[in-house]
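quick one, 62 residues, struct below
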Amino acid sequence: MPMEDKRIYTVEEIQEILGVCKSSAYSLVKKGEFSCVKIGSTYRISKNSFDEWLNQPKECKK
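---
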């Protein structure tokens, strides 16, 4: 299924989209940066919540 048609992402997909390591992707999930649910031992991240987080203006620290 194409990424734009998905309603949820896995941590691995978030990792791939952001180009970060697995521990960084899990850190964002565990900090509650976007809405997610834990099913068994896996997380599922709301695409809408992730897209909103990604598109928010953020100040880059120098």
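The first strand starts at residue 8 and ends at 10.
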